[in-house]
């Protein structure tokens, strides 16, 4: 193999990029990894004195994601501020159909968890401080040129651009990846004609560790238990889909008026909405990249596929993909093959493709079926929700999707593992 400055460059040190770096430090500790992140890093940014903010953004973690974080040695710390989802209630507003899932009936303490993004980032950083992963921060990958045996990556720091060579570049800079466009990857985008409004809310009744998926004639909404790992409080994380016109109207309202509008759309299952925090919003688009790998380059996370957030599948899908990529890098490195070799990256793509196709289809079909208000579809939806609630086989299938255990999950091997590659089908 050609000599390079580093083995792997990860463009983006957010949740996806940092998780990939940590997983590689566990599975292939002698692999040289460099993370390029636009935000400066502080060695004091550790979770020891973490104080949750009411307005903190959060991520839904499936049970399968907990298993991955356990393998990485991260879960014990992360779980200190991860609110468990013990029940899931799916309903169609104004209709009789509903489906309920309970962790206890599946022999688990939780179906999933809700964790603040900042807390997850701090936990990852705390672990990464004890690894050999190198950071270029603040910095930005602005271009890449293929070279013999790898890639030549242009990194901009303090208005200066310098070159760093590597076997492979992984693009993990999010759904609005400018680097993806610069490198010429072709995306397919399907606009839903809706926006996601994200906020934390308080209610008069406790959430009782229940996640609500509520489909309405104006679009789906989700309320996820939030705020405490042990006490069933009254704070929930809201994902509310709105048309452009409705979003403009909601944003113009006072906080009490927003609560009343939300009450009208969601109903009274959590009692009265008493407070809504800072509102963030963004347009909803299904974005996929059919060919997310090339020789020396791979797209991961939202840079490769961005889903509708109401089903809570996006980060969990990305996490499974990252572990699949780590395993392919481990196998290639152990055999003396360049990790940027096209055969290595195509093997990763083939293993991950079925998972992302099924997850995209599952999420997209939920939105489209529950967005159709024709009488035949309404009747079919009622029957479908009731069927899911009553038929054990259908309910197990739905639970596996919700828990993120319906696909293939790469097993992270420590150095010296006898097995070259194993895939666990859960």
UniProtKB/TrEMBL annotation:
Query: What is any Pfam family matched here?
Result: FAD_binding_3
Asked whether the UniProt record includes ATP-binding among its keywords, one would answer no
Which cofactor is essential here? FAD
Pathway it belongs to? Answer: Cofactor biosynthesis; ubiquinone biosynthesis
**What keywords sit in the KW lines?**
FAD, Flavoprotein, Monooxygenase, Oxidoreductase
| Residues of the FAD-binding domain | 5-362
Q: Does the keyword Oxidoreductase apply?
A: yes
BP term (GO), one: ubiquinone biosynthetic process
Q: What highest taxon heads this organism's lineage?
A: Bacteria
Picking any one GO molecular function of the record gives: 2-octaprenyl-6-methoxyphenol hydroxylase activity
The family note in this entry says: Belongs to the UbiH/COQ6 family.
Question: Per its record, how is this protein called by name?
Answer: 2-octaprenyl-6-methoxyphenol hydroxylase
- What's the source species for this entry? Marinobacter nitratireducens
Lineage, top ranks:
Bacteria, Pseudomonadati, Pseudomonadota, Gammaproteobacteria, Pseudomonadales
């Amino acid at each position: 193999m050609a000599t390079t400055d580093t083995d792997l460059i990860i463009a983006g040190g957010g949740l996806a990029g940092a998780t990939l770096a940590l997983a590689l430090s566990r599975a292939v500790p002698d692999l040289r990894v460099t993370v390029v992140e636009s935000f400066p890093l502080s060695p004091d940014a550790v979770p020891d004195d973490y104080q949750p903010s009411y307005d903190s953004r959060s991520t839904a973690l499936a049970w399968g994601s907990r298993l991955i974080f356990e393998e990485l040695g991260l879960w014990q710390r992360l779980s200190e501020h991860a609110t468990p989802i013990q029940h899931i209630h799916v309903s169609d507003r104004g209709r009789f159909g509903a489906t309920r899932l309970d962790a206890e009936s599946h022999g688990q303490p939780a179906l999933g968890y809700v964790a603040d993004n900042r807390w997850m980032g701090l936990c990852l950083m705390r672990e990464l401080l004890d690894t050999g992963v190198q950071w270029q921060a603040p910095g930005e990958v602005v271009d890449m040129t293929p070279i013999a045996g790898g890639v030549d990556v242009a990194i901009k720091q303090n208005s200066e651009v310098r070159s760093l060579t590597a076997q492979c570049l992984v693009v993990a800079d999010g759904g609005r990846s400018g680097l993806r466009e610069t490198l010429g990857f072709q995306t397919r985008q399907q606009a839903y004609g809706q926006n996601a409004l994200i906020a934390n809310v308080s209610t008069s009744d406790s959430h009782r560790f229940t996640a609500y998926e509520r489909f309405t004639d104006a679009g789906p909404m989700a309320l996820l238990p939030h705020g405490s790992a042990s006490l069933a409080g009254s704070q929930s994380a809201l994902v509310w889909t709105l048309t452009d016109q409705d979003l403009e109207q909601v944003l113009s309202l006072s906080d009490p008026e927003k609560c009343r509008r939300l009450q009208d759309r969601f109903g009274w299952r959590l009692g009265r909405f008493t407070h809504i925090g800072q509102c963030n919003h963004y347009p909803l688009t299904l974005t996929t990249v059919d060919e997310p790998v090339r020789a020396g380059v791979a797209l991961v996370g939202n840079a490769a596929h961005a889903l509708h957030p109401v089903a809570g599948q996006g980060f969990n899908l990305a996490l499974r993909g990252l572990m699949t990529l780590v395993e392919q890098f481990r196998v290639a490195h152990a055999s003396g093959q360049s990790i940027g070799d096209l055969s290595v990256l195509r093997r990763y793509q083939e293993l991950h493709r079925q998972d992302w196709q099924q997850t995209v289809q599952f999420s997209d079909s939920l939105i489209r079926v529950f967005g159709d208000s024709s009488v035949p579809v309404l009747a079919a939806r009622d029957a479908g929700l009731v069927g899911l609630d009553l038929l054990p086989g259908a309910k197990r299938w739905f639970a596996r999707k919700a828990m993120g255990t319906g696909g293939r999950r790469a097993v992270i091997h420590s150095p010296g593992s006898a097995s070259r590659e194993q895939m666990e089908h859960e």
